[in-house]
Q: What sequence folds into this?
């Protein structure tokens, strides 16, 4: 159902955008808080506000260039609706002033070809330059275009409760259009974005919301029944739940994180999942005593490291404006320290997967290569071989997922084995 476009609805979008453009808090948190404070907004109204303000964040630089100095929140929204969402002046009539019509016509008439490459790609200069040097000028364009699209909604079937095929049948019976994922054996991609938080299938633990690319990290780690496994940076536990299901609810699975809040978010998910082999634990830092007690005892360790998140710009477009060269440099020091500490948990023959949702080589390849150079007791396992054994064909010794190639978020992962 489409929202009815009114001055009041436009005012809500303007208010949210004003809060977002301070970049003081994550965009999704700002939008969620606004909706909690304005419960009178219906589902269609909320969808309009969220989609429009996120479109402004995604296309901020090119819209700013087109706006020719008219940079109020109002003008950004009008330009976004006209250029990005393709609305006509007739559709904008409820809010468009007669004096703004010539300006808006000029905004729409501006050609992308007239804009510098970084502006055309809607990336800050430093990030455009990094990506261009990594991928080449020709590939940055489709990569940026994919990052500037809204992400689809992916689910992961919880096979402890229900097979993917059964879940697809049940969703179809309820009129929810869905297809099996192209890569992960558990993934389901929805055509639309229905509200699922109170859906019976969700409440009974039949599925979790999880990007298909994220699900491949489980295939790369390959946890087995009865093993001792650690999710070193568990967060709210999406990957923890996947690993627990792969272990068929056997063995011991530790979910460590430095944040009480994130681990608290894992609790209800864990209850729905039906898992009893998960042991959440808050740690102060990567050298915490809880971590040291497991040294040399673990079969598998997943390190989904804190990172810039620049592979998730489809979902979190504000990150490209909130991150900087300095913040990335700070993160790489943390990533190297976490990888070193997590590697000490492995027994000989054990496997560690180091992963990020970043696109940047300094958070990915550079961290892994430096670790291997300093730790001759570890070797790189070819990711393509591990995945191929499980029916997933992706090239390369390290896993690299990109939205324009794989229709997932941007992910990097490397599988490392302790050989001595």
A:
């Amino acid at each position: 159902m489409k929202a009815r476009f009114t001055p009041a609805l436009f005012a809500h979008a303007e208010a949210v955008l004003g809060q977002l453009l301070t970049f003081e808090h994550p965009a999704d948190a700002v939008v969620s808080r606004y909706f909690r404070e304005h419960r009178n907004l219906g589902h269609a109204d909320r969808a309009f506000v969220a989609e429009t303000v996120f479109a402004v964040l995604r296309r901020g630089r090119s819209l700013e260039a087109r706006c020719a100095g008219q940079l109020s929140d109002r003008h950004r929204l009008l330009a976004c609706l006209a250029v990005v969402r393709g609305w006509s002046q007739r559709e904008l009539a409820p809010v468009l002033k007669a004096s703004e019509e010539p300006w808006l016509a000029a905004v729409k008439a501006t050609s992308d070809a007239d804009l510098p490459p970084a502006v055309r790609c809607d990336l800050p200069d430093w990030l455009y330059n990094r990506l261009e040097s990594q991928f080449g000028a020709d590939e940055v364009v489709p990569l940026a275009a994919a990052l500037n699209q809204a992400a689809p909604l992916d689910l992961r079937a919880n096979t402890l409760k229900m097979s993917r095929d059964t879940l697809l049948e049940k969703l179809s019976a309820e009129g929810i259009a869905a297809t099996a994922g192209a890569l992960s054996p558990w993934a389901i991609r929805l055509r639309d974005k229905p509200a699922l938080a109170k859906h019976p299938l969700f409440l009974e633990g039949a599925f979790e919301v999880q990007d298909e690319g994220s699900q491949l990290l489980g295939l790369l780690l390959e946890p087995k029944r009865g093993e001792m496994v650690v999710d070193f940076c568990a967060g709210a536990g999406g990957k923890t739940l996947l690993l627990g299901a792969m272990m068929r609810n056997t063995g011991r699975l530790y979910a460590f994180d430095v944040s009480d809040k994130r681990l608290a978010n894992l609790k209800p998910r864990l209850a729905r999942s039906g898992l009893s082999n998960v042991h959440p634990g808050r740690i102060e830092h990567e050298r915490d005593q809880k971590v040291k007690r497991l040294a040399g005892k673990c079969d598998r360790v997943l390190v989904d490291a804190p990172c810039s998140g620049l592979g998730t710009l489809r979902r979190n477009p504000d990150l490209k404006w909130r991150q900087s060269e300095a913040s990335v440099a700070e993160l790489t020091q943390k990533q190297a320290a976490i990888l070193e500490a997590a590697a000490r948990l492995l027994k000989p023959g054990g496997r560690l997967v180091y992963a990020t949702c970043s696109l940047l080589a300094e958070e990915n390849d550079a961290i892994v290569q430096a670790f291997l150079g300093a730790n001759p007791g570890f070797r790189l396992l070819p990711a393509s071989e591990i995945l191929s054994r499980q029916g997933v064909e992706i090239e390369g010794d390290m896993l690299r997922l990109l939205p324009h190639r794989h229709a997932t978020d941007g992910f990097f992962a490397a599988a490392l084995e302790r050989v001595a």
Observations:
- The domain at 213-418 is CATH 3.40.50.150 (Rossmann fold).
- The mean pLDDT is 95.
- The longest strand covers residues 346-356.
- The chain has two domains: 7-115, 213-418.
